[in-house]
User: Fold this.
Amino acid sequence: MVYSYDEKQKQVKLVKVPKLRGSDAQRVENADVPKEFLKRVMGIKLNIQRV
Assistant:
């Protein structure tokens, strides 16, 4: 899941992200970014609390 922040309304919104398939998915897999970094970023769970 991906979230974006709307500064005008001061709200966090859920944004739908399409699943990558085919050549796009292969290009991401072959990127020079370390795979461990990508796995850690994808595994992050954010707990957003309104104060």
